[in-house]
Each structure stands twice: as C-alpha cells, then as structure tokens.
Amino acid sequence: MLNFIAWYLTITLLGWLSFPLIYRLFPKFADRGYSFARTAGLLVWAYAFWMLASLGIAQNDVGGILLGLAVLAGLSLWAISSSKNGSKSTGERIGEIIQWLKENLKLILNVEILFLLAFIFLALVRAANPEALGTEKPMELAFINAILRSPTFPPRDPWLAGYAISYYHFGYIITAMLAKITTTAGSIAFNLMLALVFALGAVGSYGILYNLLTPTTEHRKLNTEYRSLLAPLFLLLVSNFEGFLELIHQYGILWTSKPNNFWIWLDMKELSRDPATVGQIPERFWWWWRASRVIQDYDLVGNFREVIDEFPFFSYLLGDLHPHILATPFALLVIAVALYIFSGGWRGRTEIFGFRFHLKPLGIFSVALLLGGIAFLNTWDILIAAALIASAYTLARVHADGWRWDRLEDFLFFGLVSGISAILLYLPFYIGFSSQAGGILPNLINPTRGAHLWVMFGTLLIPIFLWLLDLWRGKKHRPNWALGFALALGLPLFLWLFSWFLAAVISLLDPGLVNGFLQSQELGSRTELFTAATARRGEYIGGALTLFVLLASISAFLFSRQKDEDESTDKSVAFVLLIALLASLLVVAPEYIYLRDQFGTRLNTIFKFYYQAWILWSIAAAYGAAILFAKAHRWLNIILIGFAIIAGLVYPLYGVISKTNGFKPQAWTLDGAAHITRNAPDEAAAIAWLQNTPDGVILEAVGGSYTGYARISTNSGLPTVLGWPGHESQWRGGYNEIGSRQADVEMIYTATDWETTKKLLAQYNVDYVYVGALERSTYSVNEGKFQRYLELVFSESLVNIYAVP
Question: Measured between alpha carbons, how far is 716 from 712 in angstroms, rounded to an integer?
C-alpha cells in the first residue's frame, strides 16, 4: 500500500512539475497537453538521467536520478520564464497557467480521476496474482533488478556476466528509476509499473480523443469531457471477440454433432471441441490465452504454425512487463505529437543538414527525442512512429500549401532527418545494441482468413465501418473513389509481386533452401508452389476483401475532393482517417511479407504490427463511436456499436475473474517474488542475503527458457555466467558471445579437478557459487571441493553459497 501511494504521488508530482513545459509546447491543444504531462515528463526525466549516467557525469543512484529531475525542472522553469520578444513576464505566464487550470477544472478532474481509478484497478488485479513467474516475466524482472544493481550505464546483462544488456531496455531503466527514487523493491516495482503504464495509457488515449473532438463547431456540441472516455475503453478494456465466442460456446450455442458445424468451420483450437456443460467461465487451464492466438496459420500440408496476436487487455491480464507494453503510453504520445503537427503546431522554418523544414527547432527536437525514446523502448515501433509523424507533417503541408510532387520529398527528408537526429540523441544505446532483425522474407502461403481477422479486430472495425458509412451519408466530402480503389488494389498487388520477387531472389541465392521448402510442402516445382499459394489466397478471400474495402474507403475520404473552395476538410476527420489508414497498412503488410527473425515465420511480425494497429484503430473506433453516439436518430449504429462494446467486454470480465480466482488470492501483495518465500523459504533467504551483499558475479545452474533456471540472478540483480541461453542468442543474434559457457558452468559444478574449476571461476570472474536444490538436480555437484577451497558465506536448509577469494 505504501509503495502504491509513493508511486502515485511521485508520478502525479512529476506531472505537475512538467506541466509548465508541456503547456508551452502544446498551445494549440484544447487540453494544453495536460493529459500527456506525466508521460512526457517521464520521458524527459528518464532521458536526462540515462544520458548523464551514460556519459559518466552521474551515477546510477538517487543523486543521478535527482540530477535528471533537476534538468526537467530547469526546462519547466525556462518555459514560464522566457517568452518571444519578452512579451510576457514570468508572473504573467504563471497567472495564465493558473487561469487556464481554473477554466478547465472539469477536464483536470476527469483526467486525475481516470488516472487514479485505472492505476488502482490494475494494481488490484496484479495484487491478486502478483507472481513474476512464467512466460517473459523472469526476463523482465531480471532486467529491472540488474539495472538497480548496476553502478553505471550501460546496465549489466543479468544473464551474461561481463556484457551489457543488448536489448531495447529504456522501459526497464524508467522502472528502476522510479523504484530507486521511491525505495521500492524490484519485484514490487514490476507490478506497479504495469499498473502505471495502464493508467498512463488511459489518460493518454483520453487526451488524444479530447483534442480530436474539440476543434470544430460540430464537435463542440459533444460533451467531450465524457465522450473522450471512449478512447481508454476501446484501447484498454474492449477486447477481441474471442471472449464472447468462449461464452456462447460454453452454452453450446451453434454447436451440432455435424462435422461441418460453425465451430469446426471457425477453427480456433479448443473452440472446435465439444463445449462444457456447466458454468459460464471455461474450466480449462488458461482458457483466456486463446484470445492471443486467434490467427491460425497452416502450411500447405496442414502443419500448424503459431501466430501471436496480442491486444492490450490480454497483455495486462497476462502480466508480462514486455517492451510493447512499456512503450504504449509513449506510442500514444507519438499520436498526440503527430496530431499536433497535423493541426499546425510548431509551424515555422528550420534548416538542418541543408534541408528546410516547416517546423520550429523546438518541434524538430521534440520529435527526435520522442522517436529516439520509442526506439529505445521498443525498436519495432520506430518505423511506425516515424511514418505517422512524417505523414502528419506532409499532409499538414498539403492542407496548407496544396499538393505537389515534392511533398514526397518532404515526407522522406523529414523522416530521414528525424531518424538520424533520434539516433544521435540516443547514440550510447545504439553503440552496444545488436538487432534481431535479419531482413525481409516473403509470406507466400499464409493469408489471414476473414473470420479470424474479424474475431481479432471486429470490435474495432464495427464502429470504424459505421463511421465511414456515416461520412458517406453526410455528403460533406466527395470521396475520391478512383484513388481509393487504386490504392486498395495497387498496394496488395505490389506487395504480392514483391513477395514473389523476394522468393525468386532467395531461390537464386540459396536453391538448396528453396528445394528443401518445396519438399517439406510435398511440392515438385516452383510452379506447383505458385499454383497452391494462389489457390490458398483464393480460399481465404474474406480477409483480403475486408482489407480492400477498408483501404478503399479510408483512402477515398482521406484524399477526398472538396465541393467548393470555401469548404475545408475537417482536420480531426482527416487525422483519424490517417491513423486508420496506417493501422490498415500494418495489417496488410504481413499478408505478403514479414521480418526475418529467429522464429522463421510471421509470428513476431503479426504480434508487433497487430498490436500497433490495435492502438491506432482503437482511437479511430472511439472517435467514430463518439460522433455516432451524438446522432441519437441513428439507432441502428448505436445498437451495433453497443454490441461491439459489450461483446468486447466479455473477455476482460471473465478473464479477470479467472486470473485472480475471483479476487480471492492466497495473499494480497504487489510483490512479484512473494511466491519464493512461500514455496522455497531457503532460497528466499539466500536471495535476500545476496541483495545486500557486495556486488559480484554469481554462478548458478543453466537451463532452458521459461523454466526455473536463472532464478537467483533474476531476483538478486547479480549477473550470472549464463541465464537462459535461448534468450541470450535471440538478443544477440547468435551464440558467439555465449560460447562454451553452458558447458563450462557444468564443468565448474561437476569437475573433480580443483585447478580446472579454479581456472574457469577466474575466467568468468565468479564471486559467488550458489548450490541449491536445482543445481543438485541438474548436475552431479562435487560440493566437496567448494567446501575445501572456498568460504561458506551463507547456508540454510538445502542452499549453500560459497565466496570465491
């Protein structure tokens, strides 16, 4: 409870400290950036702290954190103490801010109440199932604790002693920073950060919709302070249709004994089986997991290929503090900045590297700082974020000065310069970073079924399609259907041809690989592959048709022709169309290509692209719903959107009940490591001892990913010789750095020759040798040599820790 209060007060005070700066940065926003003050302040604070520590100016301690906070305070002081041509004094600026706060008290109360309720809600969910155990949680906790123990930056890799973290880890630096300044243990900070990100996402999405709904006369008729709550509803709570399908499947609806019944046709694993006969909530273990695996890929001989299609509430329910979660509030800040630029914010002239930009230097720097932070948080998001901001900048130029072909140069140069500037601002990160990406591969045989696409995104697509239909009925704009159809047909055709071009290049460079693939698919030639792949796309035409209609409609309205020179396009509508178009492109792309990684399929590309598409489409869906709810005479729209919302809320309702055991935990706690104290008190005592012992490298047993191995380094913050080998190879793109570590660790534990053991201990600079139940079950431990040559510094029950002199 005290930790929760400390975090709430810290992040709230941070918001107020940063608000003068944000107020100065976003004068064109209806909320003056208030909804984003916490997130933006966190970005500036964390960046200043990280950079100062990376340059050796500060240490990774409370003093360094306070120095970073002083930088933010200095910027806010600058914001209220300086003005163009000295037109306003500091007192006048402060008075202006106070007056604005008084005039917008309802907005401020809404934001503050929303933030607090969202923070409390997810903290309660996590307190009912707090374990940082399973899936990716050990990795994430390991990063947090390692950063807390690292004296300087870059922080040490907890699972590869002697190396720095080679992963996008800015979110974990932010988590550790908040933990250290509030004196919170890493295992508690893990759950508080998850709740904080949820709350920041709530107010960030609220702010975007609020600023979209307020600019025009038509929108002033809306009760924007309350209708803006639709944004966090669609982003964070409304889920895909899988939860609703679970419910009707549980009741046996649409189930028959015929082999071609609805559920067999739908083909969603467990839902293809006979439904249970009792209870509303499925009884099977982790039933809610299926919602993140609704896309079903099969190769041409019927072998299943897993695809990940997470959406926000699933991620928060699962409880992994992964980079895509940590980046969400900052992704919303990207959308806000894009909206601000699109609305004419920061308009001015700046020359960089010989290129002229129609933004003030402050705007250019803000974009670079944000884009660099996004890449540091979750590198997958950088191209999407850069594309959105560059598109908003370019379309703002089109709206201001008309279309010319050199607008494409504006897009490319703005994106290029912003990207280079972002890299320079975060250069210490890139120096030690190894990318996991290995190029682009063609997706020839796995288009997405329309049924699965609608199960995944239907709760968002329903309000989006209804809003597009309302635009068409309103006749305010003349849709450019020629351009819309050209884009909707041309883009997929181009990507399809490009995928086959990639396949042809691969066949020339590595014919053995292609022949092996053909054999695995029981095909005799490339011609047979082309025929089979084309037939598969024809069989799964529903997904392609959905995306075609969506692309055509959005593009037609985004590039609509104005009816007369006096009537301008509503910028809010145009921006919503822009983000909806970008989301559509994110869904279209993996239909034909995917990024090469260690998985070898489109699994990870779907995961990363769909998640960003959900964020963008959720804002569009919320905007469309807000507009349509104001038109009470369109009762069919209200019924359909209401159905989408209610059906989308089935999953969070029953998912939370299942995950928290009806909010009846063994104990209410936010400590993600409390399970160790309950289940292995000797190991808990050993970890507590290591957390307070002098820094050093610890030796523990090595084993596979998603197991109990590496648990000591994970919870103590001390680096181990080798943690999960599979994860390390994923982060570093291979096993070069890992080398023979796994075999060497086994040798240290099992060798009878002390000289060999001593040499290996020295090679890896081992300071502590941990011998517990897992080590004894993994190896035939020769503990006698440790007892003879090393000092026993900790012993309890089955755990012994030896210090290496």
Answer: 6
Token look-up 């029981």 returns: 522
Q: Which of the residues in the chain have pLDDT under 50?
A: 217, 563-569
Q: CA separation (Å) from 305 to 236, 602, 792? A: 28, 9, 50
730: its two tokens: 């994923």
**pLDDT per residue as tens digits for the range 18-59:** 999 999 999 999 999 999 999 999 999 999 999 999 999 999
Residue 744 Cα distances to 154, 158, 163, 483, 721, angstroms: 26, 18, 17, 63, 9
In Å, the largest CA–CA distance within the chain is 92
For the purposes of burial, counting CB atoms within 10 Å of the CB of 569, is it exposed (0-12), middle (13-18) or buried (19 or more)? middle
pLDDT at 511: 87
End-to-end CA distance of the chain: 42
pLDDT in the model for residue 251 = 85
Residue pair 243/291 in contact by the 8 Å Cβ criterion: yes
* SS3 state of residue 347: coil
- Each residue of 318-359: pLDDT tens digit? 999 999 999 999 999 999 999 999 998 888 887 776 677 788
CA dist list (Å): 734 to 597, 714, 728:
11, 22, 8
Cα–Cα distance measured from residue 711 to residue 687, given in angstroms and rounded to the nearest whole number: 9
Q: Which DSSP letter does residue 417 get?
A: H
Q: Which domains does the chain have, with CATH numbers?
A: 680-803 (3.40.50)
